[in-house]
Amino acid sequence: GKLPMTWYPQEYVTKVPMTSMSMRATGGYPGRTYRFYQGEQVYPFGYGLSYTTFTQALAEAPTMVSVPLDGKRNCGSNGTANCQAVRVTHARCDGLFLNVHVDVKNTGTRDGSHVLMVYSTPPAGHQAPIKQLVAFERVHLQASAQQQVRFAIDVCKDLSIVDGMGIQRLPMGPHVLQIGDLRHLVSLQAGGDL
């Protein structure tokens, strides 16, 4: 199984006042949840044990995705789409998916289940979370068996962040996808209208 929460050290409760519901870390405040907490952890979110071992390898994933704008908006003063973050409402999001295929292999001597968790880390500088869970899938594999797992990550929904004003934005630039020990860089670029 996998933990559905972060286990904090005992001193965490002395650093976080009961009256503060802020998620993001500021000053001496360490933040909350796996998305924003920057301190030491007893067990991280998603930690788990198994009776067998698994490996995963990236089979297919794009390195760049063009995000089309709605035609009425542009980011640059000269009419080119050159910006740091696009409002999700200004992007054409229908059918905009990031297809990621991962080969999973049970390398142990026992049958077992494994939960693949896909995290995204957006570009720095957007008051963004450290990482956020964007997809997961449980697979059951017999000993020495292999299976390909396919994820369709909704670019506008899953890779967007909420800024300090509460506006949902899609940061342009390099996003890091993390699946176990795998790291994959995918760059989002604002494109013209369709």
What labels would you give this structure?
hydrolase; 11 strands; mainly beta; Immunoglobulin-like; Ig-like_fold; flat; 2 domains; Glyco_hydro_3_C_sf; single chain; five-stranded mixed beta sheet; BXL
What's the number of domains?
2
How much strand content do the residues show?
Answer: 35-45%
Q: What structural category characterises the helix and strand content?
A: mainly beta
Named CATH architecture of the largest domain: Sandwich
Write the CATH fold name of the largest domain.
Immunoglobulin-like
H/E order of the elements?
HHEEEEEEEHEEEE
Overview of this structure, please?
By secondary structure, the protein is mostly beta strands. It folds into 2 domains: 48 residues, no CATH class; 142 residues, Immunoglobulin-like (Sandwich). 6% of the residues lie in helices and 41% in strands. It contains 3 helices and 11 strands; from the N terminus they run ααβββββββαββββ. The strands form 3 sheets. Strands 2-11-10-5-6 form a 5-stranded mixed sheet, with no helix packed on it. β8 and β9 form a beta hairpin. The longest helix has 4 residues. About 3% of the residues have low confidence.
